[in-house]
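Entry 0007
Protein: Ferrous-iron efflux pump FieF
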Amino acid sequence: MNRTLRLALGSILIGLLVLGLKFVAYLLTGSVALFSDALESIINVAAAVAAFIALQVSARPADANHPYGHTKAEYFSAVIEGVLILGAAFAILNEAYHAFLHPKPLDAPVLGLAINGAASVVNGLWAAVLIRSGRAWRSPALQADGKYLLTDVVTSIGVLVGVALVALTGYEQLDAILAALVALNVLWSGWGLVRDSVGGLMDAGAPDEAVQRVREIIGSHAQGALEAHDLRTRQAGHTTFVEFHLVVPGDMGVAQAHDICDHIEEAIRAEVKGAVVTIHVEPEGKAKHTGVPVL
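Output (structure tokens):
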């Protein structure tokens, strides 16, 4: 099992632990706001399972039916997570509506808040691990999981403060209002996950800074060529595909042009981890004078 899969499995175990703690807090207090926080944790566990499966699929090597590999499988898990989040938000809104119409006092608020707070600390620490590792290993599934956990931590803090105010002031309908606010925040985070994942499935290009770095590498490592144009990039999980046309002098031999391409490819792969580079060599008559000039 590789390091990414180990983290994904860890997310499932952490999610189950946090889910148990938050439901205990809800059962102790009867707070619908704490119930909404616990419901988010169910989504965390389901999403962690989806991410684990997607990472297993994405780790498979390219085959005859998938010559570009299986890396896009990670985006499907992020889309599934986004859809689950949206469903949870509507469920929370329904509970908040009924709780607002029929409010009730909280039971054992101090103990319930303490348990929920401990769950939030665990979530926060694990979210930091997932986001840092997801960025370093360029895993959309781990980053999506970590970002949502971080959102969960923020909403949990708000819920803790709000439920404490309910206990102090006796304003019972505030509990339902807090749950509704949690639902709106969940809706926003779910929309963000779906939007980003759809971008990956639609072959969105690499970030602007990455594209600019590739342009600089081509310009400084293509000595002997004349220019590069029609540069295109796309990302699929941890893989970045780079394609462009390289213009060389018309009298240059195939072997020399091939050496230039190898030099460029090595430089790009050294800078952009997981890069897959495709270069189309053209004679100088195909120059457009609008691409990347060779220094």
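Curator remark: Residues 140-169 form the longest helix (30 residues). The beta strands are 227-236, 239-248, 275-283, 292-293.
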